Request: fold
Amino acid sequence: LSAELLNAIREQFPALHQEVNCKPLVYLDNGATTQKPKAVIDALQRYYEHDNSNVHRGAHTLSDRATEHFENARKTLQRFLNAKKAEEIVWTRGTTESINLVAATWGRAFIKAGDRILVSGMEHHSNIVPWQMLCEQTGAELLPIPVLDNGELDMDAYKSLLTPQVKFVSVVHVSNALGTINPVADIIRMAHDVGAKVLVDGAQAVAHWNVDVQALDADFYAFSGHKLFGPTGIGVLYGKEALLNAMPPYQGGGEMIEHVSFSKTTYNGLPYKFEAGTPNIAGAIGLAAAVDYLHSLDRVALAAHEDALLAHANQRAAQIGGIRIIGNARHKASVFGFILEGTHPADVGTLLDQQGIAVRTGHHCAMPVMEQFKVPGTVRASFSFYNTLDEVDALFNGLEKAKLFLL
Ligand code: PMP
Reply:
C-alpha cells in the first residue's frame, strides 16, 4: 500500500487517532477485535436515527424500511461468502453462538453414542467446549487432530483419524493463537470422503481475505462481525440449505414459528427457524456496511500489506533476539505470537500498554495450544491492514524497553 492510501484508510478509523498513556495509540490487538470504519459507525447512527423499528412484523413504513435494510444486509453477507442463497445465512451473536447452534441442533439430531467428532489441537475454546458438551450428552467421542511443532496440523494423523465412525469435523481456518492458515479445502474433501460433515471456524480468516464457501465445499462456516470491522453482538452461521433444513430449531420464541397452538407448533422456514426473538438489526446493517467498505478496497493489496507487516515483525524479532515465536507455519496470517525469553507475557503486555501499544497476552482461549508449546501464555500482536511498518517498529522499540526493565 502506498503511504498515501494507507493514510487515507487510517483516516476512516476514528479510534486509531488517540493517545493512550500520553503516547499515540498503536493498536495491535486485531485478533481480539478490529476497529470500526466511519462507514460502519455512520450506518449504525443512520439506522437508529431514521429507520429504527422491529423487523418482519410492522404494518408501518419504518418497520418495512428496517426489514428491507436487514434483509439486504443478509444478501450482502451471502455475496461476501458466495453462498448459493440468502436463506443459508443465519444471524447469530458471533462465532461462539454459531458453533453452539450447530453442536446443539445438528449434533442433537445426528450424533449418537459411539460416533466420533474431530476438532484440531489448535482450536479456540469455542470450538472445543460445545462439542465436549455434545459428547457428554450423547456418548460420542471427541478427538483432537494433533498439531506439529511448527504450528501446522498433522495431516497424516488427520488422515488416520478419519474412520467411518467420524461424523463431524470442526476446524479453525486461521488459528488465533498461532496464525496458522489451515488447508481447509483438503480437510473438507477428506472428511467428505468418509461421509463426515465439516464446520469451519472462520473467526480469524474473514478479516484477511474473501472466503468462498462453495469453492471450499464447507458444510458450515462461522464468524463474528466484530473481527471483520463490524459491530459486536452480530455474527454469521453459513450452512448448506439441505443441512439447515434437516436440523431442528435452536432457541424457541417469536420469529422462528409458523403457527403456535398448545396442541402443536410448526416452525418457520430458513433462515428464520434459527432466529428466535428480535434480532440484532443494527448489528446486521453495520456488518453489511463493513463488508461494503472492504469491497471498496483492493483486498489482495491489503493482504499483501499485512504479509509485509508480519515479515517485518519476523525480521525485527531476529534482530533484537530473545524472542521465541510461537507458531511458524508456512502459511500464516498476520498473527505474531511470542514469548520474550525470561519474562512473563502479562508483564510485557503491561509495559507495552504504558507505551500506548495494545497487544493481547495470555492463553488466547486456546489452552491446549499453550500446553503443547509449554508456555503459560504468549504476547500476541495481530496486525490489520490499517497498521503501519512504523507501528511494527514501535512494538519492537517497546519490547527493547521492556527488556531493559524486566531482564
Ligand atoms: N474462534 C476463533 C479462532 C477466535 O479467534 C475467536 C475469538 N477470539 C472465536 C472463535 C470466538 O469468537 P467470539 O468471541 O466473537 O464468539
Notes: The mean pLDDT is 97. The chain is about 40% helix and 15% strand. The pocket of 4'-deoxy-4'-aminopyridoxal-5'-phosphate is lined by residues 94-96, 124, 126-127, 172, 176, 201, 203-204, 224, 365 (CB under 6 Å). The CA atoms of residues 40 and 55 lie 20 Å apart.
